[in-house]
UniProtKB/TrEMBL annotation:
This is FBX36 protein. It holds the Pfam family F-box-like. GO terms for cellular component: SCF ubiquitin ligase complex. Residues 93-139 form the F-box domain. It comes from the Eukaryota.
Protein backbone atom coordinates (compact mmCIF):
# COMPACT_ATOMS: atom_id res chain seq x y z
CA UNK A 1 0.00 0.00 0.00
CA UNK A 2 2.79 2.44 0.82
CA UNK A 3 3.94 2.26 -2.81
CA UNK A 4 0.69 3.99 -3.80
CA UNK A 5 1.77 7.02 -1.82
CA UNK A 6 3.46 9.93 -3.56
CA UNK A 7 6.93 11.11 -2.55
CA UNK A 8 5.44 14.17 -0.85
CA UNK A 9 2.95 12.94 1.74
CA UNK A 10 1.96 16.42 2.87
CA UNK A 11 2.92 20.02 2.18
CA UNK A 12 1.59 23.26 3.55
CA UNK A 13 2.84 26.83 3.34
CA UNK A 14 1.66 29.87 5.18
CA UNK A 15 2.38 33.06 6.98
CA UNK A 16 3.03 33.13 10.71
CA UNK A 17 0.40 34.46 13.11
CA UNK A 18 0.09 38.26 13.40
CA UNK A 19 2.02 40.47 13.79
CA UNK A 20 4.63 38.24 12.08
CA UNK A 21 5.13 38.54 8.34
CA UNK A 22 7.39 35.47 8.21
CA UNK A 23 6.64 32.63 5.78
CA UNK A 24 6.82 28.94 6.61
CA UNK A 25 6.74 25.64 4.74
CA UNK A 26 6.12 22.20 6.21
CA UNK A 27 6.91 19.17 4.09
CA UNK A 28 6.53 15.48 4.98
CA UNK A 29 8.20 13.04 2.59
CA UNK A 30 7.83 9.29 2.18
CA UNK A 31 11.10 7.86 0.78
CA UNK A 32 13.39 10.05 2.88
CA UNK A 33 11.00 9.58 5.82
CA UNK A 34 11.59 13.18 6.79
CA UNK A 35 9.78 16.21 8.13
CA UNK A 36 11.20 19.43 6.72
CA UNK A 37 10.30 22.77 8.28
CA UNK A 38 11.49 25.90 6.45
CA UNK A 39 11.14 29.58 7.33
CA UNK A 40 11.81 32.93 5.72
CA UNK A 41 12.08 36.00 7.93
CA UNK A 42 10.28 39.03 6.54
CA UNK A 43 11.11 42.25 8.35
CA UNK A 44 11.85 45.90 7.76
CA UNK A 45 14.19 45.97 10.76
CA UNK A 46 17.83 46.29 9.78
CA UNK A 47 18.99 43.50 12.14
CA UNK A 48 16.84 40.95 10.26
CA UNK A 49 17.56 42.07 6.69
CA UNK A 50 20.55 39.79 6.29
CA UNK A 51 18.80 36.81 7.88
CA UNK A 52 18.90 33.79 5.61
CA UNK A 53 16.09 31.29 5.27
CA UNK A 54 16.24 28.45 7.75
CA UNK A 55 15.48 24.76 7.66
CA UNK A 56 14.97 22.04 10.24
CA UNK A 57 14.96 18.46 9.00
CA UNK A 58 14.02 15.46 11.15
CA UNK A 59 13.26 11.84 10.40
CA UNK A 60 9.72 10.77 11.22
CA UNK A 61 10.94 9.18 14.47
CA UNK A 62 12.93 12.29 15.47
CA UNK A 63 9.92 14.50 14.78
CA UNK A 64 7.74 12.45 17.13
CA UNK A 65 10.23 13.29 19.92
CA UNK A 66 10.94 16.94 18.94
CA UNK A 67 8.50 18.92 21.10
CA UNK A 68 10.09 22.27 20.14
CA UNK A 69 9.32 21.74 16.44
CA UNK A 70 5.86 20.39 17.28
CA UNK A 71 5.04 23.57 19.24
CA UNK A 72 6.20 25.75 16.34
CA UNK A 73 4.04 23.83 13.86
CA UNK A 74 1.01 24.02 16.15
CA UNK A 75 1.45 27.79 16.58
CA UNK A 76 1.86 28.46 12.87
CA UNK A 77 -0.41 25.90 11.20
CA UNK A 78 -2.71 24.81 14.04
CA UNK A 79 -3.31 21.71 16.12
CA UNK A 80 -5.16 19.84 13.35
CA UNK A 81 -2.15 20.05 11.03
CA UNK A 82 0.13 18.90 13.85
CA UNK A 83 -2.15 15.91 14.52
CA UNK A 84 -2.18 15.03 10.82
CA UNK A 85 1.63 15.20 10.56
CA UNK A 86 1.85 13.05 13.71
CA UNK A 87 -0.37 10.43 12.04
CA UNK A 88 1.77 10.45 8.88
CA UNK A 89 4.97 10.02 10.92
CA UNK A 90 3.39 7.12 12.79
CA UNK A 91 2.56 5.45 9.45
CA UNK A 92 -1.18 6.10 9.60
CA UNK A 93 -2.19 7.13 6.08
CA UNK A 94 -5.68 8.21 5.04
CA UNK A 95 -5.93 6.64 1.59
CA UNK A 96 -9.53 7.78 1.10
CA UNK A 97 -8.48 11.41 1.52
CA UNK A 98 -5.88 10.96 -1.23
CA UNK A 99 -8.36 9.87 -3.93
CA UNK A 100 -9.23 12.34 -6.66
CA UNK A 101 -12.52 14.24 -6.51
CA UNK A 102 -13.82 12.58 -9.68
CA UNK A 103 -13.18 9.10 -8.28
CA UNK A 104 -14.77 10.00 -4.94
CA UNK A 105 -17.82 11.44 -6.73
CA UNK A 106 -18.21 8.21 -8.62
CA UNK A 107 -18.07 6.19 -5.37
CA UNK A 108 -20.43 8.56 -3.54
CA UNK A 109 -23.00 8.33 -6.33
CA UNK A 110 -23.63 4.68 -5.35
CA UNK A 111 -24.43 5.51 -1.70
CA UNK A 112 -27.92 5.75 -0.23
CA UNK A 113 -29.20 9.27 0.40
CA UNK A 114 -28.90 8.84 4.18
CA UNK A 115 -25.25 7.80 3.79
CA UNK A 116 -24.54 10.80 1.56
CA UNK A 117 -26.02 13.06 4.24
CA UNK A 118 -23.82 11.43 6.91
CA UNK A 119 -20.71 11.57 4.73
CA UNK A 120 -21.25 15.28 4.08
CA UNK A 121 -20.82 15.88 7.82
CA UNK A 122 -17.38 14.24 8.08
CA UNK A 123 -15.19 16.94 6.49
CA UNK A 124 -15.30 20.12 4.43
CA UNK A 125 -14.07 18.26 1.39
CA UNK A 126 -16.84 15.65 1.62
CA UNK A 127 -19.43 18.35 2.35
CA UNK A 128 -18.39 20.12 -0.86
CA UNK A 129 -18.45 16.88 -2.86
CA UNK A 130 -21.82 15.79 -1.45
CA UNK A 131 -23.40 19.13 -2.41
CA UNK A 132 -21.80 19.32 -5.87
CA UNK A 133 -23.92 19.51 -9.01
CA UNK A 134 -21.71 16.86 -10.61
CA UNK A 135 -22.73 14.29 -7.95
CA UNK A 136 -26.42 15.16 -8.10
CA UNK A 137 -26.43 15.03 -11.89
CA UNK A 138 -25.15 11.44 -11.65
CA UNK A 139 -27.81 10.62 -9.06
CA UNK A 140 -30.62 12.14 -11.17
CA UNK A 141 -29.38 10.27 -14.26
CA UNK A 142 -29.37 6.99 -12.34
CA UNK A 143 -32.99 7.57 -11.21
CA UNK A 144 -34.44 8.77 -14.53
CA UNK A 145 -34.90 6.77 -17.70
CA UNK A 146 -33.93 9.78 -19.80
CA UNK A 147 -33.23 13.45 -19.27
CA UNK A 148 -34.82 15.77 -21.82
CA UNK A 149 -33.08 18.96 -22.94
CA UNK A 150 -35.76 20.94 -21.03
CA UNK A 151 -34.98 19.01 -17.85
CA UNK A 152 -31.23 19.55 -18.32
CA UNK A 153 -31.71 23.29 -18.87
CA UNK A 154 -33.92 23.55 -15.78
CA UNK A 155 -31.40 21.57 -13.72
CA UNK A 156 -28.61 23.92 -14.79
CA UNK A 157 -30.74 26.88 -13.69
CA UNK A 158 -31.90 25.50 -10.34
CA UNK A 159 -29.14 23.00 -9.59
CA UNK A 160 -29.23 19.22 -9.89
CA UNK A 161 -29.67 18.66 -6.14
CA UNK A 162 -32.69 20.96 -6.01
CA UNK A 163 -34.11 19.25 -9.06
CA UNK A 164 -33.73 15.83 -7.41
CA UNK A 165 -35.68 16.92 -4.34
CA UNK A 166 -38.42 18.74 -6.27
CA UNK A 167 -41.53 16.68 -6.88
CA UNK A 168 -42.55 15.72 -10.41
CA UNK A 169 -45.58 18.00 -10.57
CA UNK A 170 -43.54 21.06 -9.58
CA UNK A 171 -40.86 20.16 -12.13
CA UNK A 172 -43.45 19.92 -14.90
CA UNK A 173 -44.85 23.31 -13.87
CA UNK A 174 -41.37 24.88 -13.87
CA UNK A 175 -40.52 23.40 -17.26
CA UNK A 176 -43.80 24.79 -18.66
CA UNK A 177 -43.02 28.26 -17.24
CA UNK A 178 -39.52 28.09 -18.67
CA UNK A 179 -40.89 27.24 -22.13
CA UNK A 180 -43.37 30.12 -21.91
CA UNK A 181 -40.57 32.55 -20.97
CA UNK A 182 -38.47 31.36 -23.88
CA UNK A 183 -41.43 31.63 -26.26
CA UNK A 184 -42.17 35.21 -25.12
CA UNK A 185 -38.49 36.15 -25.45
CA UNK A 186 -38.35 34.76 -28.98
CA UNK A 187 -41.50 36.63 -30.01
CA UNK A 188 -40.17 39.90 -28.57
CA UNK A 189 -36.83 39.50 -30.43
CA UNK A 190 -37.61 39.57 -34.17
Amino acid sequence: MASWLPETLFEIVGQGPAPSKDYYQLLVTRSQASVIFRWWKISLRSEYRSTKPGEAKDTHEEFLENSHLQVQIALIFGARILDYVFSLCEGKFDFLERLSDSLLLNIISYLDLEDIARLSQTSRRFAKLCMSDELWEKIVQSCCDSITPDMRALAEEMGWRQMFFTNKLQLQRQIRKRRQRQGSQRSSNP
